[in-house]
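User: I'm putting together notes for a lab meeting next week and I want to include a structural view of one of the chains we've been expressing. I don't have a solved structure, so I'd like a prediction I can at least talk through. The sequence is below, exactly as it appears in our construct file.
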Amino acid sequence: MTLSSSDARLRTFANLRDLGGLPLASGGVTVPNVLIRSDAPYPADEDPAGVPWPPSTVVDLRNPTEIEPIAVTWPSAVRVVNRQVSSSARIDRLADTALIEIYSSVIRTGQHRLTAALNEFDSTGSTLVHCAAGKDRTGMVVAIALLLAGVEADSVIADYQRTEDFIAGVFARLRERRRIPAGTTLAAPILRTPREAIDLVIDEVTGTPGGAWGWFEAHGGDVPRFERWVATFVG
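Assistant: Thanks for the context. Below is the predicted structure for the 235-residue chain, given as C-alpha cells.
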C-alpha cells in the first residue's frame, strides 16, 4: 500500500525507544545506544530521530507469514535475524484475547524461543528488538533482558507500560496496512498493557532457582554470550 503525503505521521515507528538510562539495582543506569525496542518497520518508513540508525543487529520476533507481505530491506551491514517467539501473541489473530492468557502460554511453553531471541543480542553494537506492535513479544523479551541486566523491577514494569502512551500510533500503522482485523478498536484487550501480564513474566523468570540467570540457563540461554552483552549494556 502506498501512503499519501497526508499520512506522513505513519511513515516512521510509533513505539520506538532506546532503553538507556534505566536504573540498575546495583546503582548506576543502563547505557544508551545498546538496546532499542520498537513496533514493526515497514517499507518506505523514514529513519527515526534520536537513536543510532541503522542498528547493528535486528531481532525480528514475528512469524514468517507476518513478514512476507511487508518485508523491509535493511542495509547490507545490518545483521537481521528472525526468531519467532509465539503465534499465540500475534496481534492480528487474537485481538479479543486477554493478555494474561497469552503471556501465560508463552512464558510457560515457549521459554526456549524467548532465550533463542536473547541469544542473538549484539554485544558490539546496537540491537533493535521488534515484533508487530512492539508490545507483547517484544515486551516479554525486553523485560527478561532487563531483568538479566539487573534493572530494577519497577523500571521493567514502567517501561512495559510506556507502550500505552504510543498505542494509538501503533494502531494507526497496523490499521493502515491492514495488519489488524477489521472492526478492531483501541479498546481491544490485545492493545492494553496490564500490570498483571508483565508481573506474570517477572514472577516466572525471577522465581526460578538461581533467579533470572537460572531461568535463562535452564531454557537454553547462552550465558557467556549474554554476559558479554550485559557488560556492554550496564557499562
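A couple of points you could mention at the meeting. Confidence is low (pLDDT under 50) at residues 1-6. The longest helix spans residues 137-149.

User: Perfect, that's what I needed.
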